[in-house]
Design goal:
alpha/beta, 2 domains, DNA polymerase, domain 1, Rossmann fold, binds magnesium ion, seven-stranded mixed β-sheet
Length: about 240
């Protein structure tokens, strides 16, 4: 681990879901591959890599617009495929169909991040735990149904869409702290995103463990790549 050590006792541990406990990027990659391999796919002569690169560029912009309230849920879910088709100079009429098919494929490829679920259970033996995730409620709930231990062990499951704002919005962290019944300074948040999780958590007065493949010697946050190390570092 690198960065600043945890300096306050921890009374509750919240986990991010996507790319922290479950491997969203893998599922996204495989779902786009499957979409591209469909016999009647609409991508014409564009190879998978071109589609993948374009999608990975568009998706964060769509989420940013959704978080800002500039897009509604359907606008985000379908709009990302409309933008993708536009970006590839293709007809956009099949955007809604693509969005549905993408989610069907996506749900077939969820898998845990290596080491994360064992660490989640080890931490849940010692502290009350919860899940705090951005995302569409029906999709995040489907993930939790596929990995029922996560919600069964959790004292609180907070999905941004149910609250009406997305991480890093302070209202979402405040609502999560309220549901945990724990003062912000005694909550630890474990997440992978600098913007949503690290900035959001620190802004809310929480301690943060930043899960990152390359550990960072950051002045404000503890960074880790090895789940076993995290478990032994949390102050009780
Ligand atoms: Mg994440």
């Amino acid at each position: 681990m690198q960065g600043v050590p945890f300096d306050r006792p921890v009374r509750f541990v919240y986990f991010d879901l996507d790319d922290t406990l479950l491997d969203h990027h893998y599922a996204e990659h495989r779902a786009l591959e499957a979409l591209h391999a469909d016999p009647d796919q609409p991508f014409g002569g564009h190879g998978f890599e071109a589609v993948h690169v374009a999608y990975r560029a568009i998706n964060p912009l769509i989420w940013k617009a959704y978080a800002a309230g500039d897009l509604d849920k359907i606008g985000a879910k379908v709009g990302r495929f409309r933008r993708l088709l536009e970006e590839l100079s293709l007809p956009t009429g099949v955007d809604a169909q693509l969005a549905d098919r993408y989610l069907d494929h996506y749900s077939r490829f969820w898998r845990p991040v290596p080491g994360a679920l064992d660490a989640f259970h080890a931490i849940a033996e010692r502290w009350p735990v919860g899940i705090l995730t951005n995302g569409f409620v029906e999709i995040q709930q489907a993930k939790l149904r596929q990995y029922p231990d996560l919600s069964e062990r959790s004292a609180a499951v907070v999905i941004s869409e149910e609250v009406g704002v997305l991480k890093p919005h302070p209202d979402l962290f405040a609502e999560a702290a309220r549901r945990a019944g724990t003062a912000p300074e005694h909550i630890l948040y474990v997440g992978d995103s600098m913007h949503s999780d690290v900035e959001g958590g620190l802004g809310a007065g929480w301690q943060v463990a930043w899960f990152s493949a390359s550990e960072h010697d950051h002045p404000d946050v503890r960074s880790f790549s090895d789940w076993n190390q995290l478990v032994s570092q949390i102050p009780g």
